[in-house]
Amino acid sequence: MIQRIAIIDLGSNTTRLVVYEYEPGYRFHLTDEVREVVRLREGMGNGMVLRAAAVNRATQAMRMFASFCRSQGVDDVIMTATSAVRDAQNGASFLARIRAETGWEPRLLSGEQEGYYGALGAVNATGLREGYVIDLGGGSAQIVEIRGGLPGRAVSLPLGALRLSDLFLGFEESKPSAVTRLNHFLQEHLEPIEWFRTRPGDRLVALGGTVRNLARIEQASLGFPLDMVNGYELAAGSVQEMAGRFWRMSQKERGKLSGLDPDRADIIQSGALAYAALLDHSGFDSITISQQGLREGIFYERFLAGQPHPVFANLREFSVLNLARNFEYNVVHSEHVTRLSLRLFDQLQAAHGLDPIYRELLWAAGILHDIGNHIDYYYHHHHSAYIISSSGLPGYTPREVGLVALLTRYHRKGSPKAGELEPLLSEEDQTALPVLSGMLRLAEFLERGRSQVVRDVRCHLDQANGWLQIEAMADGDASMEIWDASRNADILSRALGLDVELVAGVWLDDTIELSV
To answer: What proportion of the chain, given as a percentage, has pLDDT over 70?
Structure first.
């Protein structure tokens, strides 16, 4: 049964409303999002009192969100408040006002709860198993340890970008003495957190507007070819460089930075300095960006309510299936094309010599190759590639997303080439692209009639003499499938440097066990 839920995160700097449509444990997708800058912490200073202007901005935003939810018919609403309200002397009266204005029952999260939900979102976005999650917002920064894919010990520190700007730097060009005081403040709060240190196999994942903007600034400077930050690796050296540069710039100069949201031009310098200190303290040489955070973590608690923990057991598999389900893919056809593709990959290992990771990417492309049919048949290969590259696949790196998109792009026609995605791909990727595309295309045409008449393939390889025979094991008349596949064997032939011929075979009803 399809359900809908709205989740509101009232933060120190911004507030955001998201609406999800979902079938518990099966599929979900974001249907709407509204963001408003409320600067709830602005002007609090050390007095810890929410100021009138900030309260009015936040209250107006909540009234607007309540009206929106009523107009959309979304009755299931979870509203949370975090650092600014948690710290404020008048926080309780503010929440009472929100309750009276909206009829909601706001949830005031503790620092540890805020860290837990942010970590859930990050783990379910990146597949982090061992390491740490940082959620640096406007008022606070949460550091959460992840072991075995689950959130563990956590700490909440007063290191939010808006708070630091308010206390130390102001919102224009900063003085060196102010930066020195800020750095001492950062070190003072980080020094006691001895457990926040890198160790072999650990990764550092970060979420929130500050780190996303740092990543987008770097992407803009590099001409990064995908409009996605989830899974992006931001080097510590890049963070240090931006931290050392931004505080010397005026707000107007920062506002002209490509990739930076204009409403963050006055606080990005504090956030960059905070991340530089976090990296220096922990010893990590890079940060993996998570597009998801607290709101998603709260949603996953609802979506995965039937599980022991609200964490996907196999994030990469679920991400592919979730996207396929949202675009109403043909399950039987897609799974059969995938099965034939993987059979080719396995039997031709001696010829292509590709790393096993490419088998998983081929599986993903096989499941997703036809989702573009939801838009249009004639150019569905283009549409499939666009959907994948624009939607992203949580748990996959941007490079892997790009490669999966390219495989779907060339499953039907055209000569495989990386095009604008070439900067993302390694040399091995460039070699793998035509090989995998050739396999997927052959499998697609061997399933041309969508009848599964070609039940299996059997490969006979003679590398010494430069030929490959593919026997299409059919349970009926597969003459059209073999004819069409033969016309489309050229990609695989060129990729492997072999003459490829297809012949008819007879399905003997053997049992074949396949794994993803």
So the answer is: 98
